[in-house]
Design a protein that fits this description.
94 residues; mainly alpha; 2 domains; 4 helices
Amino acid sequence: MDIWASDEDRARTVAALEQHAGAGRLTLDEFAERAQVAHGARTMDELAAVVGDLPADNAGATAATEPSRDLLILFAVAAATLILLGIFIAVIRA
């Protein structure tokens, strides 16, 4: 029984193709052909065939942790800015 692919599944497959192209495993022409097939895929089996000959990457796990690390750094910078702003306002009013 075939499992229908969602738009998110197709986008995830194209993102994996982008990572493989960036790593030099696919030429731009190969990427374009496979991305076109991925966008037209209806089932998970069709999507699996698009990336089936490429190595399984742990880049997806790394990419999933990078945004949260970036968000943590952004939060730390924003908190430090608010603290400094509070100190500045306290000094001006004193």
